[in-house]
């Protein structure tokens, strides 16, 4: 979009991320081909360029990886916590050293802006490993009784929206508590997990402790249902989460699920408008809205609706959409064609149901998967765009008159992951936060994460918490 | 002196603070361990189960919103009432489980003590499992436990009173509301407990007690979209699996059946199984007190 003050292009060099033409599965410390020789291509969503060809895990590979993890478990779990901690500290340090490379790689494979991979994802990834490294030799003090034991082999399936961060959330606590891991990254974003495999090798992590199996849903299903997996951890859609809950029914497998959301971001009439607008933008346009805890439902007090929407639209008009490797880019590419189709169809449904669609003047690049930041006004609670998780840069705006009405509307969803409150009044923050049925409530801020802080949902947003002391429980026999 | 004919009790369900008969109009015979008839217990239907869920949901807001101190007082009041009915429960437990009077009395004492133990937890659990998180940034954030919601509790089959209280008390101590399916074979202590709850200060609907066929009642409860969690203590292995599958439809929190010695002092697991953790963030504008100059 042309404006008076154009930014000069500020591209990050992609040369620092040396992507090989092909990658194998990482099993028992080695890169190997899939048993049936299958491969798939991973593309850059911003250009549709093929980045690499990656081995595609099947059930035989899952079995091989679980066996490797089982063999490794005996020694790994017997290792003194202080020694496990040192491996995790090493990994954390190597991530810091290689963070620029990993940020570029993640941006290429995922489509998210380099500003976010560099300033949000990578620092958090390192921080998670540091945080859980420190727990490894202090588990007796974690409040789960003396000498809590690991569960065994953890089967972990992660999504494409934060490929490396979700890997860190899963692997760091699993290793700290003495479990071994078989992790399946998403089919559209396998590369950073494979680079992580290399980090494990650099750190001298014993073979088989971490195994990485790029693949599709079938590999995930095989992993979840494998009889020798003791713990299942999944982040992704609620539909798949329910399927996993059915699969593990009647087994002794422990399961944690981090699923979808339809977070309410509530703005009261005394909120600082400029800060609230920044928070709303951050809440729904961060990572192109492909965030399970996104603030995708804006609840505005009726009296300030006009003022807030004017400000918000003005702000959206300044967002820069384009090359994710450009350091000035705010909005990158949608992760895949499939996801773009989903967003498009839900947005069309929103229009068909009578909600009013608005986007700033926004030119979309010709190749790649793109979706302009979008607002819906005139939305009612019955509208699909107010109920379904869109997982894209689409904000539905609803209004309310009283705090009680705001709470009732915010809670009117089967999800319960996140919520936001914007008001200058402390007692209102505490009163409303107390009534919201959500696992994370951000007051006068949004989308903040920290390894020390438990994260996870109520209701159909899943079971269990990741992060903090609470995050250890999922990997301990307690 | 003529022989006096004793007055038998019609056992009823406990739903929403009232004592209805089963909507189905059905009853089943409850016998003691030697097969002697004790009473006819209501044979609850799916409709009774759904009514109980409605009552439990209605009670949830006020109960979960009550202060932890208040909940502790209310639970302790239940223990006081139980103590006064010690002899009645001793008789019922002796009949139900085929125990001698003295053994049954010991079980009842342990049960009352168990109730007192949980009464004392209401205002402590948040300090044990919640707390402030040292965020690396200018934010204050706090994780606190909150009740999950409506919990369906399949009471243990063998331990008709101590087991029942051991699974029920932790659910309501933390602010959840409960729909309890009593032991199928030995429901009478549970139905009598309901009378105690009704005359304590426990608000109607916080605990709802159903008697009948565990499998028949558990199936609609596990599938119910307005039940948030289920304790499968009283389910056998194959029923438990089936219920766990049904529970996946709305991602209920499931506590799987496990061997439990109810005579042992429990840990906090039965409370934490039905708690969510809410993390609330707020900017501080600074990194906290560490920069203070005095």
Automatic annotation (TrEMBL), chain A:
UniProt entry keywords in alphabetical sequence: Oxidoreductase
GO MF term list: oxidoreductase activity, acting on the aldehyde or oxo group of donors, NAD or NADP as acceptor
Protein name as it appears in the record: Betaine-aldehyde dehydrogenase
Pfam families named among the record's database cross-references: Aldedh
Source organism of this protein record: Streptomyces qaidamensis
Residue intervals of the Aldehyde dehydrogenase domain: 31-477
Similarity section: Belongs to the aldehyde dehydrogenase family.
Domain of life assignment: Bacteria
InterPro entries with a match to the protein in the record: Ald_DH/histidinol_DH, Ald_DH_C, Ald_DH_CS_CYS, Ald_DH_N, Aldehyde_DH_dom
SUPFAM superfamilies: ALDH-like
From TrEMBL, chain B:
Keyword Oxidoreductase among UniProt keywords: yes
Domain Aldehyde dehydrogenase residue range list: 23-254
Plastid in keyword set: no
Xref: SUPFAM superfamilies: ALDH-like
InterPro entries, sorted: Ald_DH/histidinol_DH, Ald_DH_N, Aldehyde_DH_dom
Chain segments annotated as transmembrane: none
One Pfam family linked to the record: Aldedh
MF annotations from Gene Ontology: oxidoreductase activity
Keywords of this entry: Oxidoreductase
Protein name: Aldehyde dehydrogenase
Organism of derivation: Streptomyces qaidamensis
